[in-house]
Amino acid sequence: MKIGLVLRELHRAENDLAHDLLQASARHEVDHEVFHIARDLAVWSQRHVREIAALAPRYGEELDPEPEDELKLSARIRERGSELVGRRPDVGMLLLRDLRSLHLAATGVSVDWELLGQAAQGLEDLELLALTERCHPDTLRQAKWANAKLKESATQVLVT
Fold first, then answer.
1. How far is Cα 154 from Cα 58, in angstroms, rounded to an integer?
2. Cα 35 vs. chain centroid, distance in angstroms?
3. How far is CA 78 from CA 26, 27, 62, 102, 117, in A?
4. Sign of the C-alpha dihedral, residues 91, 92, 95, 97?
5. Partner of 85 at 20 to 30 A CA spacing, among 13, 57, 111, 123?
6. Which is more confident, 83 or 115?
7. Closest C-alpha to 96, from 19, 155, 137
8. Which fold has domain 3-159?
9. CB within 8 A of 77, min separation 6: which ones?
């Protein structure tokens, strides 16, 4: 059975999505909507990381229940910020790039939840199915938010 592999990948992807949301939040702190909503959405992925880790031992995986911490995040943001400052990107274009990346990441995580949900149905594993039913809708909302914010921002950024 390969459920453990799917759980491991989903754990990694949710951790990365939480990190990316927090990073975007920090980069766009002056945009209060992006700052606050991205942080709230990151909490959802962090919860998913914990829930996946709790179920993983049933499928032979030992996963860290704690999402990547803020100290590691701060170091990555400083490193990436230094790169970006050197290139002097337009803030609006940076926002579009971040939103596009968030949308793609959330969509990828959504596909992983779909795979896990299908496997749970095939196995008739009610606990695994309940996990997907709790977490997948959050991921869909994360993708929808990034897409909506992208649409909202695109005209202003690209035309002005």
1. 45
2. 15
3. 10, 10, 31, 19, 37
4. negative
5. 13
6. 115
7. 155
8. Ferritin (1.20.1260)
9. 23, 26, 27
